[in-house]
Write a structure and sequence with these properties.
Length: 488
Amino acid sequence: MSKKLWLRLRENWQMKIGVVGSGYVGLVAGACFAELGHDVLLVDNDRQKLAELQRGECPIHEKFLPELLQRHRCKRLHFTGDLAHAVRKSQIIFIAVGTPPKEDGDVDLSYVESVAQGIAGAIDTYKVVVEKSTVPVYTSTWIRRIMLLNGAPPELFDVASNPEFLREGSAVADFLYPDRIVIGADSAPSAALVAQAYRPLTDGSYYDRPDMIPGPVDGNFKAPLIETSTKSAELIKHASNAFLAMKISFINAVASMCEAVEADVEQVCEGIGSDSRIGRRFLRPGVGYGGSCFPKDLLAFRGVARENGLQFGLLDEVARVNAEQRHRFLRKVKKALWTLKGKKLAVLGLAFKNGTDDIRESPAIAIVKALLKEGCSVTAYDPAAMKRASEEFPDGSIKFAADAYEAIAGADACLILTEWEDFRALDLRRMKKLLRYPIVVDGRNLFRPALMQAAGLNYYSVGRADAVSTRSAVTPFLKHAIEEDEAA
Ligand code: UGA
């Protein structure tokens, strides 16, 4: 890039940005870059999705995203299916297309490759091509090679890595109020150009705006910027997700230990989490992690280690503990109900976590499928994920309820599988009345066992002692059998 162009860019920090892929990462990034004042062209080859976005619809359940799309659509945020047009118009192009897992656990990078080919064919002036999708280390090197092979002049582009750390459900706030922004680049101009896209966050000016999206920090906040090599940035993303998954599996393994020795995992969490070196976050035990990121990224990270001749057995163990967590939950349901065949179960929560309608790799979906195999019937309720879940159970194999109470009515037990806040507010007395038997198996530890016991419920949770109501010391099934005997 010429010095003249660089000086001009510095004077006018507002940029023309292309974002390729309108999935979670691309759509949120595109809307947020527009929110920061840039002109954004969001590219997707899915015509139906484009039409929805052009009509002003928001295809995903994400807090603040509909507001941002409404605010910037047709002004600073435009949608197109024409990649070449977007490349020519943009100074910087973020690749945010899907990188789905393959059968063998490797990542399918064919979408990234075809976007790189498309960019190469259209490049006319200096651009920075930035990988934002989660990809294995060396992907930036491959993007560069593919672009050169497809005729892109080497002096007209740089490839950089700018991993995204947003969580589904709080993606917009995570983007606008990040713990850190990581920019991996191997040339100073490309690093500076990517940093420019984030300037309102790193200089704090965004947080002075009266119309800013509210976030978790005070007025003096400035987003920290970390500049690294491209390979380090690629590794930071995989290592961050692997570490968080490890924290969850660690606490789940500790929860099993608590069950074995009759300790309480919540007390243990408080004790270990208050060490500032460990921290309390991501120490919630449950049915294991799911979603489109942790399971896939863990496998991909392990794949990269193997390719490089390294054994990273810790990652295998993290995945093993996670899978075991679902089996443990099923064993708890069996323990509470004795036999499963013919049992009518209420399932609260289908999304892989709260705040989202995403069911990819959701432990809840896997558990429901296992219960159906055992011959149970299931009525489920989820505040956001039922539409997506109905595609997973197209044959009407489960019923969907309009609210939690409808799901619970007449059920032999209630299972809690997603940590939705709404469920914490359930009226326990009403719950007890509606259930055929007063059994709650909570895979997310939403309630205090003593409270459940006081409400007359038999409560089974993770890493804590079972709280069997003294009012039903005779097990519900025994009671039912006695009643049936008497009636006969
Ligand atoms: C995760 C990371 O948290 C983000 O930083 C990252 O950007 C994203 O992956 C990604 O790579 O795109 P996400 O998958 O949206 O974000 O969800 P998390 O909030 O991390 O939760 C993942 C799973 O772990 C959920 O199933 C959740 O229920 C579970 N979890 C989380 C626990 O079981 N216990 C906890 O303490 C925390």
